[in-house]
């Protein structure tokens, strides 16, 4: 209802976008972090990650969401886009209880909430940026790997180290969850590092030869995954 495309029109979700929603719910409900590897231009950020952040805060104003991207500028774009959604009239109809807090910028957003929490409601930083801030309930890795930080072995290793050691340590409590969305760049990058970790449930959707084709593989999921996915898509009017 609240997300908008580049022309300002309501988002129209196809099967690929609904599959991301299902996959994240499936993974998080089973105590796993969620990874989605999908092609360039499929809407991973605009149709999913950004609206998800806005929804998480509207659903629970006490939540703390961190975006981690390949650089600070891209991270700021995500927060700015979430801010646009949250300032919209439709969002205010859906979440009428939400009010702005003490800070409302393109780098961090605070909403009014109980207590004296120091951490922003939505916060964004580049993967190698200093000053990562406090704790988070939800961590969204959004294309942290790019051509620049994967071609050079030293940067590739540093990116993996920061992703796993620095940023994942920000998750606060056993119910905290991470989402990792990416297009793979190198077989030794951070994406592949998490992909091989059993605590992550990974959805891989390669570029399809037929744009109407349904092509995907899921890793570290239970035997019920496919049947539940098809039921979810059918409930939303899609026949696969």
* DSSP summary: helix tally: 8
The total of beta strands comes to 9
Q: Specify the helix fraction band.
A: 25-40%
Distance between the termini: 24 Å
| Main sheet makeup | 9 strands, mixed
Strand content: 15-25%
**Sequence of strands across the biggest β-sheet:** 3-4-5-2-6-7-1-8-9
Class derived from helix and strand content:
alpha/beta
Shape: globular
Radius of gyration: 17 Å
The overall number of domains is: 1
Mean pLDDT: 88
As for the CATH topology, it is Rossmann fold
Low-confidence stretches: none
The CATH class designation is Alpha Beta
Strand and helix order:
HEHEHHEEEEHHEHEEH
Assign the CATH architecture: 3-Layer(aba) Sandwich
Q: Secondary structure elements and their pairing?
A:
Blueprint: H1 15-29, E1 33-37, H2 44-59, E2 65-69, H3 72-87, H4 89-94, E3 100-104, E4 108-111, E5 122-126, E6 138-142, H5 147-151, H6 153-167, E7 177-182, H7 190-195, E8 200-204, E9 217-219, H8 225-235
Helix pairs in contact: 1-8, 2-3
Write a structural description.
With 240 residues, the protein is of the alpha/beta class. The chain has 8 helices and 9 strands. It has a single domain (18-235), classed as Rossmann fold. A 9-stranded mixed β-sheet has the order 3-4-5-2-6-7-1-8-9. A hairpin with a 3-residue loop joins β3 (100-104) and β4 (108-111).
Brief write-up:
This protein is α/β, with parallel strands linked by helices and 240 residues long. The chain has 8 helices and 9 strands.
Features:
240 residues, alpha/beta, Rossmann fold, nine-stranded mixed sheet, 8 helices
């Amino acid at each position: 209802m609240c997300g908008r495309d580049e022309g300002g029109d309501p988002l129209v979700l196809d099967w690929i976008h609904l599959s991301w929603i299902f996959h994240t719910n499936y993974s998080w409900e089973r105590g796993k972090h969620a990874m989605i590897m999908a092609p360039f231009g499929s809407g991973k950020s605009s149709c999913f990650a950004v609206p998800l952040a806005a929804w998480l805060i509207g659903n629970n104003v006490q939540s703390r969401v961190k975006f981690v991207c390949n650089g600070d500028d891209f991270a700021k774009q995500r927060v700015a886009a979430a801010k646009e959604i949250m300032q919209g009239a439709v969002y205010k109809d859906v979440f009428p209880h939400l009010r702005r807090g003490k800070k409302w910028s393109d780098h961090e957003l605070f909403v009014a909430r109980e207590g004296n929490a120091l951490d922003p409601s939505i916060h964004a930083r580049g993967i190698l940026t200093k000053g990562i801030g406090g704790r988070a309930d939800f961590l969204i890795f959004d294309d942290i790997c790019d051509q620049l930080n994967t071609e050079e072995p030293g940067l590739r290793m540093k990116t993996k180290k920061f992703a796993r050691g620095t940023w994942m340590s920000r998750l606060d409590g056993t119910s905290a969850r991470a989402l990792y969305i990416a297009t793979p760049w190198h077989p030794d990058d951070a994406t592949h590092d998490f992909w091989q970790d059993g605590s992550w449930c990974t959805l891989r959707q390669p570029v399809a030869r037929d744009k109407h084709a349904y092509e995907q593989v899921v890793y570290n999921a239970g035997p019920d995954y496919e049947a539940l996915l098809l039921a979810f898509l059918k409930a939303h009017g899609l026949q696969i």
